[in-house]
Amino acid sequence: MAASNVNVVVITGNLTRDPELRHTGGGTAVCELRVAVNSRRKDGQTGEWMDKPNYFDVKVWGAQGENCAQYLAKGRPVAVEGRLDWREWEAKEGGGKRQKVEIIANSVQFLGSRDGSGGGGNGNGFTPSSDVPADSSDFAGAAASGGGGGGGDDDIPF
Q: Closest by alpha carbon to 155, among 137, 141, 145?
């Protein structure tokens, strides 16, 4: 069996600037985000815990990119799931080759509130929530009916 490659990344952080939306020559929307993600490390000299910021460039394609441009702003917390993409190009005016690794988003979740204020008392400054209401239609008929198929614990199908 051949080994398969895995290229998956998940980050949560805050936008460092407003999203930038543009369109390709074919009309496809692409939104560029920059996300700051803090990691904690202990300072070897002082023994104090410190935040070390990491900055990631994210591209979001299509309708999801248009939504990001419309609803997100600098400072807004987001969760991004996607893949890493490496690019190389020749710099303008003979500046040599340039390289960049960025995240191509499969999904972007908007966290916190639209105004960027978190509220919540979970210690990190915001309460995760979604701008999209949960679809609970699958559970509409799930109330215990007291009879006929699937009402009791002894009706387990295995």
A: 145
For 55, the 3-state DSSP assignment is strand
- In the block, tokens 């949960």 appear at 134
Three-state DSSP at 101 gives strand
Paired tokens of 25: 């020559």
- pLDDT exceeds cutoff 90 at 156: no
Taking only the tens place, the pLDDT of each residue in 31-74 is 999 999 999 988 889 999 999 999 999 999 999 999 999 999 99
Q: Is 95 helix (H, G, I), strand (E, B) or coil?
A: coil
Give how far Cα 1 sits from Cα of 8, 106, 122, Å: 21, 28, 45
Q: In the structure, what pLDDT confidence band is assigned to residue 104 with cuts at 50, 70 and 90?
A: very high
Q: How many whole angstroms separate alpha carbon 110 and alpha carbon 108?
A: 7
Nearest to 7 by CA among 101, 122, 123: 101
pLDDT of residue 33: 97
Closest CA to 37 of 62, 60, 61, 9: 9
Reported pTM: 0.67
Q: Which two structure tokens, joined as six digits, stand for 122?
A: 């979970």
Which residues sit opposite 41 in a β-bridge? 50
